[in-house]
User: Fold this.
Amino acid sequence: MLQAKWDFAILDLFNDAGLNAATAARPNAMYDKVHPTQAGYLKLWLPVFEQKLGALLG
Assistant:
């Protein structure tokens, strides 16, 4: 309801199949099931952020 009212997007990285496959292949990318390590942010999450935010803003 809030999303429709305030018109914002949600980037659901937790349920992203491609990102989950990439993190499974790199055990050092995640501190636990929710929190990436610095390497996980840089190598895996940042490209997804850039792609999804670019699609939203472009």
Observations:
- The chain has a mean pLDDT of 92.
